[in-house]
Amino acid sequence: MTLAIILVIAAALALIFILGVTFSRSLQISSGAGLAAQIQPIDVEAFRNLIDPAGDDYLRRRLPASEFRLVQRQRLRAMAAYVQTAGRNAAVLVLMGQGALTSPDAQTADAARRLVDNALLLRRNAAFALIRIYVALAWPNSGLAATPILHSYEHSYEQLNGSAMLLGRLQNPAVPVRISAAL
Amino acid sequence: MLQAHSLLWHYLWVAPNVFLLVLAWLLWRRGLHKRFPFFVAFAIVGAVEQLVVYAADLIPSVAPGTWWLIFWAGLVAEGLLKFALVGEIFAHIFDRYRSLAKIGKFMIRGVGVALVLAAAIAAAYTPRDGLFGIVSGAHLLEQTIYLIEAGLLVFIFALSTYFRLSLMRPLFGIALGLSISACVHLATWAFLANGGLANSTRTLLDLLNMAIYHLCVLIWFYYLLVPEKTTKPPVQPQDPPAGHQENLDAWNREVERLVQQ
After folding, report:
1. Which residues of A touch B250 (CB under 8 A)?
2. Residue B59: which region, alpha, beta or left (left: phi > 0; alpha: psi -120 to 50)?
3. How far apart (Å, rounded) are the C-alpha atoms in residues B71 and B49?
4. Is a pLDDT exceeding 80 seen at residue B143?
5. Is A180 helix (H, G, I), strand (E, B) or coil?
6. Tell me, what's the pLDDT at B54?
7. Contacts with B174 from chain A: Cβ below 8 Å
8. Hey, of B93, B98, B128, B166, which one would you mutate to test binding to chain A, going by the most A CBs within 10 A of its CB?
9. CB contact, 8 Å: B222 with chain A?
10. A41, A161 in Cβ contact below 8 A?
11. Contact indicator for B140, B79 with CB cutoff of 8 Å
12. ipTM of this predicted structure
C-alpha cells in the first residue's frame, strides 16, 4: 500500500504541475504585449572582464589562498547573477520570436526563426553555465571549469543581441529591442 | 448508479469511445491525420479496442479468460501507440529548433530509461493481490504504462516550459488530455494493483477512470476542432528611421570588434 500512496502522490503532483502550466499558458497568451519591457539589458563588457581567466590568475598570485577563495566566490556569484539575467532575457526573446514566426513577411519570419534558435541556444548554455558556476562555488580553487562555456555563452549573447535587434527593427522600427547595455 | 452495469457505467464506457471515433473521422476529413498520424491512429485503435472489450463484457458466451486475453491484447497495442504518440508530441515541439533537437532527444532517452527502471522497481515491489495472474498482471502492466507515459509527458511539459516554447493549440490539447488521463489512471491503477481493494471500491475507481477519459476526449474535441481566437497581425516592416539604422550599424561594428578581440 505504501507504494500505491507514493505513486498517487507522484501522480497528483504531476497533475498539479501540468494544470499549472495550462493556467500560466492562458495568462501568457493574454499578456503577450509587454514582453519587450521585461528585458533587462546586460553590460557585456563588464561580464567579459569578470570571466577573463587572466583576472583569476592575477588574483590567485596576489592573494593568500583563503582570501582568494572568498573573492573568487563573490566573483562567481556575480557571474551567476549575469547568467541568470541573460537566461531570463533569452526566455523573453523566445516568446517574442515565436510570436513573429507565423508572420506573412518572409524576412520577418526568417529573422524570428534565427532569434528563437539563438535564444534557445543561449538559454540552454545558461543552464549549463549555472550548473558549472555552482559547482565552482564549492571549489573556488578549481580554476572555474565554466570558463570555456562562459566564453561561448558570451558569444551567443552577442549573436542573440543582433537577432533581437533585427527582428525588432523589422516588426516595429520605432521601438528598438536591446538586450546589451554596452552601447 | 455508481455500480457496474448501471446506466452511467454503460454510458461512460461507450460514449467517449464513440466520440473518439467521430473525432478521428473529423480530423481525417480536415487532413489533420497528416500532421498527427499517431494521434488519429491512437483514437481509432483505442476506441475500437475499448468497444470490443465492452462488447466482450456483455456477450455471455465470452469466458472470463478470453475476456482478459482480449483486454491484454488491447492494452499492449494501446500502450505501444501511446508511446508513439508521446514521441510525436516531442518531435512536433523540439524538432523545429536545431539548437534543441539533438539535446532534447538525448535527454528524453535518458528520462525514458530512468522511467523504465522506476516502473520495473515499482512492479517488483507490487504485492500479489490474490487475484488470478492474468488479472493482477494486467493491473501491473497498466501501472507500468501509465507511470512511464506520465513521466515522459511531465518531462516534455517541464522542458517546453523552461524554454518558454509555446505549443500549437492542437498539440497542446493532445498533450494536455493525454497527461490528465495518464496521471489519473496512474493513481487509480496504483491502487488497483497494490490495494487488495473491495469490489465496490474497484468499481468506483473504474468509473473515475472512465469519467476522466470522457473529460479528456472532450478536451481533445475542444482543442483540435475549435479554432483559436485570432490575434492582431504583426506590424508590417517599414523603412527604419535613420537614427535607428545608425544605432544598429554602430552596434554591429562594436560586436565585430568584440568578437575579433
Report:
1. 183
2. beta
3. 8
4. yes
5. strand
6. 95
7. none
8. B166
9. no
10. no
11. no
12. 0.80
